[in-house]
Amino acid sequence: MPAAPLLSAAGLNVTFPGRRGAPPARAVDGVDLDIGPGEIVALVGESGCGKTTLARTLLGLVPPTGGGVSFAGEPLGYASRTLKAYRKRVQLVLQDPSGSLNPRHTVYDAVAEGLRIHGYRGDEREAVAEALSRAGLRPPERFFLRYPHELSGGQRQRVVIAGALVLKPELIVADEPVASLDASVRGEILALLLSLRDELGLSALVVTHDLGLAWNIADRVAVMYLGRIVETGPVEDVLTNPQHPYTQALLSVLPESDGPPVILTGEPPDPSRIPTGCRFHARCQVLASGEAERAGVAERCRSEALPVLMGGASTQVACHWVGAG
């Protein structure tokens, strides 16, 4: 039997009021997603697809307008005391270490901040040293009195990770954790996240636009488009045999891709004006090429909505054309 999910979203919706009389924006529009103990899930998609809003909702930073989040089998409550306890168990790692570190705080104070917020009663110095060491900053005491501007980009990101680890969370949400780093440092940070999973049993949701990163770090991938997950499954299955035309297009532009790149036309639609039918149909290369017409599903692509994918580990795809094959 598979282990019960550590974090689970069911029927999750997040809607923001429209500006100047515009319809509400459905940033997250029906998402089921599970993250198991010790599992790394990559949430992948273009900018504006809703993945950061989904991550913030899973963290309790944005309350859902529909559906709910549960952690360790318990529904997430939004009372301040409940959220404070939850955020000790689920920590955020942001993409820009320079922006998330106070330039006037030493490394020691940056890492100790979470302990102080949560009223830690143990040996603070020992806890900070252990977190820095786990994040790869050794010997940790050498970094205590340094300031962010005295560190390299990779070292700053390790300090941010140490600040999350110091509370001994069960899950971290990493939003584009290596996007601002040099290519030479990215591999080190990804290797660190993998080692933390192996050593601590830590679960992670990694939010990224980079399918290459997903391939290197994730056990499972969820591809998001316009507020919905459109394909999900074990990373090897999805990235070696992508089914959804959107996933195929994202993979086609990677340097190691075999065929010609698929150039998607236009921008993702406005989330306040989600199209009927498959929400990808206006940009879909399969529909544009006539393949969907030949398969007899073109009209369904334009008019028939697809169901929300289940949140579990099985490979699933939301596409009329794939279903007709």
UniProtKB/TrEMBL annotation:
Residues 9-251 form the ABC transporter domain. InterPro entries: AAA+_ATPase, ABC_transp_ATP-bind, ABC_transporter-like_ATP-bd, ABC_transporter-like_CS, Oligopep_ABC_C, P-loop_NTPase. GO terms for biological process: peptide transport; transmembrane transport. It comes from the Bacteria. One of its GO terms (molecular function) is ATP hydrolysis activity. Gene3D superfamilies: P-loop containing nucleotide triphosphate hydrolases. Keywords: ATP-binding, Nucleotide-binding, Transport. NCBIfam families: oligo_HPY. This is Peptide ABC transporter ATPase. It comes from Streptomyces scopuliridis RB72.
